[in-house]
Amino acid sequence: MANVKVYNMEGKEVGSMELNDTVFGVEVNEHLMHLAVVSQLANKRQGTQSAKTRAEVSGGGRKPWKQKGTGHARQGSTRSPQWTGGGVVFAPKPKEYTVKMNKKEKAAAIKSALTAKVSEQKFIVIDDLSVPEIKTKRIVGLLDSFKLNKALVVTTEKNEMVSASAKNIPDVRTTESGSINVFDIMKYDTVVIAKDAVKKIEEVYA
Question: pTM for the whole thing?
Answer without folding.
Answer: 0.81
